[in-house]
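Question thread 4412

I'm putting together a teaching handout and wanted feedback from people who do this every day. The idea is simple: show students a protein as raw sequence, then show them the structure tokens that encode its fold, then repeat with a second protein so they can compare. Below is the first pair exactly as I plan to print it.
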Amino acid sequence: MARRPILTKTHLEIYVKKRLLLLVTVLATLPACQLFNNTSLQPPTEFPASMPATLPIPTIEPADTLPPTLASATAALTANASAFPDTTAFTWTTVVAGLERPVDFQEPRDGSGRLFLLEKAGRIRILQSEQLLETPFLDISDRVGSLSNEQGLLGLAFHPQYADNGRFFVNFTDRNGNTVIARYHVTENPFVADPGSEVVLLRVNQPFPNHNGGVLAFGPDGYLYAGLGDGGAAGDPFGNAQKLDTLLGKILRLDVDSADPYAIPSDNPYGNEIWAYGLRNPWRISFDSRTGDLFIGDVGQNQWEEIDFIPAGTSGGQNFGWDFLEGTHTYEGTRPQGANFQSPIAEYDHSRGCSVTGGFVYRGAMPEWLGIYLYADYCQGTIWGLIRSNTSWKSAVLFEPGLTVTSFGQDRNGEVYLVSDSGQVLKLVPR
């Protein structure tokens, strides 16, 4: 089924920005540069955003065509950090504590400013005005299985039009240990969702209690992406990650608008739900809110943890190599002749940790951090930064807060948060 182009909030922001710039050019006597302090709007020139080909994308005129008073402001809009900042000038400050094993953080972008936090046992909590509300937004603990450390309520994604349709999606393991991706609806009370509104999109049998993946995220194309692990145990005993007749060990891509409960996008590479494969346990994926690039944190086996990357505008079908490869290193078997494995953009060995937690590209108000992808290790709590320089990637250790990092989050302003298994949510801020 053909997909209609979606005019996203990002497109509208860019268009409004262009109109404002043109207006200020005419009214040059006004102190208009104050209008352009939000650095989250203009796609950087070297990483074009992923947009539907049929949708004209408004662009801001080059700086040399703008009045001198606006040139520096426009340059700031298009610039990414070229080097890692001095981390002694920044810290992670606690936003909320006392959560029960939180594993995800999402903002619906409905204008309310509320933050939604997942607890593994099956609850979604609301943080409003820095206060954790006592009543859960959703409590499905009666149907969530959490016998294993890697089971439970694992992922949340709000529909891009949540403010209008009240729909959101969760990924959890049920009482039998199998994966469920389901849709729910908020009630007339915006602080309470209806647990009886559940519509199951997918049920996926899990042969073992680990490697469930669990992340959900809407892409800039309006489709819902889901990460599933290879089914567990160790070493992918059934070879699921390399099979295209199972959803295990994959990134899925679903159209949740054209059919109920979903349709398969017509441009998915294999005619089914699969978008990318060859993954062991994708633990947190995210799209760069400016460029549309997809980052994947894939948990390793014995030695190597990796960050994988799908550039915006590519057509899917990437094979990241597991279980022939662990990171860039041979794990088992003989690489098939002609196999085209996509290498990770970063990896680290188990002298630095044991389980990668994927993060977000920073797009907030601190210019020193713009364009830097932040990720961490669950076991040691080390936080890395990853920055692109032309065609290469540079990674560096930035913080060692000593926390078990289960997830990262990002608010509507592009600021980045981390979620700790100890019950805390922290935000990256200046000292």
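The second pair follows. I'd like the answer to focus on this one:
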Amino acid sequence: MIMKRPLPTSLALFASCTLLHAQWVGGGVFSTVVHYQACAFHNVDSGFFAYGANNPGPLPTATEGGLVFTDDGNVSGGYYVWYAPSTNLEDIDVKMTAGLPLYMAAGHRLYNRSLVVRPYDLPAQPFAFDSIGTGNGQYYRAVRMRDDLVAFAAGGTNAGDGIIDMSADTGATWTNVAVLPGQPVSRLHFVNDQLAFAATGGYSRLVNNGLALPDSGAIYRTIDGGMSWQQVHASNVAGFSDVDFLDDQIGVATRNDGAMLRTTDGGDTWIPASVSISGNYVLTSVVFRGDGIGFASAYRPDGTEGLILISTDDGDHWGFNFSTASLNYARRIYDLYFFDEAHGHACSHYKPLRTTGIVMDVAAGVVRTAFGLFPNPGTDVVTVTLPNGACGLVEVLDATGRLVRTVRTGGGKATIDLCDLRPGSYVVRAHTIEGVLSAHFVRA
């Protein structure tokens, strides 16, 4: 039985079905002080949102975190089910066991004590929750259940290191399995029982909607079910906020500075994907839907716009899908979740968005036609030839997503000098009035 909490006016949850766009609409869960961090659903209509409040301060008593339950797909609102002052819940996961849902959420008390929220009576009361403190001087930002017994929670310590903890008894007790020096974990993703990835160095929310953007990060991988973790990619430019895989070979990681890196060999190598969103934005999450279409979330650091990006080619190209610039909510999107191909949610401040069931596609302004690159591989110069003699700005990005060249085309052509570029894989991105074109080349 769900316990309904009486709500003060400032935290009221009420319905709003105003159509915002053919693809995303405002959900009914609503609160002006709540940042909805993540969600998970056990059927198309029923699930939980994990949240933290008040940005996440400045007063400890004003930083309440908790779980909100919805039983109509977030159409008309929801109910507070578990909540506690001085907490911030940052992630939630669900597994089905014996026909019943098993939810587990993770977060912290003011970044100084990690905690896990789980049903206190398993499996008889799956919606009656209690919290377990797992350590002082540390915090959790991610949680994933490998099965109904084994779970992993990850985050960081007050010293700035990353941690990955493991439970083998459905979250009752926790043991540290990895310490990642200087690399706080932002998200976890399990591809299967043995293969999983951790993104580290992600952005952090500060008081009054400020942002902390680490200047480095890494991607870690486990091939033994989470018992050991090895770094497979590092960036000295920016941290990583999320990682998700389409299958055991193809995956994408989002970086704080707007770059997206892609692997096609199970995480051994990572190269930049093409992103056609302009301006300054922070990438916050990435997810592949069950039908293979990818989505990523972002927002402008000044809070003027939340963004959803889309990819229909296994994460190689990313274009515009939705903007909240015209709204007075959902300006900061933190996470995306899809229950199936037609039903999903964008967790945000202060009202989550939800999909209407319409199949989404890449916006018409995103052009993905290949253009000429010769020779490829190249050693001294590479010539870019744009279709129809198009003119525009041409950018070259290295394997970390760092901009290393900028040239302009004339008569549809541009020459890129390679003399001081290191051997390796690069992305050429051309901005034209018809859209954004991109292609890969190799500096031999």
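Top answer:
Good format. For the second protein you could add a caption like this: The radius of gyration is 22 Å. Residues 1-22, 361-369 have pLDDT under 50 and may be disordered.
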